[in-house]
Amino acid sequence: MSETTSRNRSDRRRERTRAALVAAAKAMLTTREPGEVSIQELTDAADVGFGSFYNHFNSKQELFEAAVEEVIEEHGAMLDEITADIEDPAEVFAASVRITARFPRTHPELAKIIDRVGPRYITSDSGLAPRALRDLQRAKDAGRLRFEDPAVAIACAGGALLGVLHLGLTARKPAAIDRAANQLAENLLRMFGLTETDAHEVAGRTLPRIR
């Protein structure tokens, strides 16, 4: 076996071990606070040796941060893919809100992680926040939406989204989750300058298929 082949196999094993640890941390985030979880529990859930942990992460906190960042980026990439064919920038923003607020029904595990992470989710440099800012700015440049301070706009929209998502996790009827998601999008569009009629129409458009 060549040195290169051996190194490639070793790299793949390391990648699999790291991925297993991150997946275990993500699963833990759906039910428990990071402080409640031990490294032993994480390595057991990942089915890797305890000593392997420190080959990839310096601390439990570092692992959970990596897990959160992966979730944030996966969420943002999902929204980009789903809304790629929408031309109206106001609808792109509204669709992203409506899709995310439906997560308690469509992606419950992801919804639980977002709910647990809380405000950090809307201030991250990756994932949802920069994409939402991009979409809002495009809608503003197109004359569809109005706002002054982008940071305040994101805080208002993100805070409302987190609240409705949390509400959705307690809802028993799927229809209630969908209704709240649409109402949230409509209210945000009105807050950013659309008329009541226009906001209602945009927030009621058929959503792209959610994968």
Automatic annotation (TrEMBL):
- The UniProt annotation gives the DNA-binding region as 38-57
**Which GO terms fall under molecular function for this chain's record?**
DNA binding
* Pfam families (UniProt xref): TetR_C_40, TetR_N
Q: Which taxonomic lineage is given here?
A: Bacteria, Bacillati, Actinomycetota, Actinomycetes, Propionibacteriales
Organism superkingdom:
Bacteria
Q: Which residues form the HTH tetR-type domain?
A: 15-75
- What Gene3D superfamilies is this protein classified in? Tetracycline Repressor, domain 2
Q: What is this protein called?
A: TetR family transcriptional regulator
Query: Which keywords, in A-to-Z order, does the entry hold?
Result: DNA-binding
What PROSITE patterns is this protein classified in?
A: HTH_TETR_2
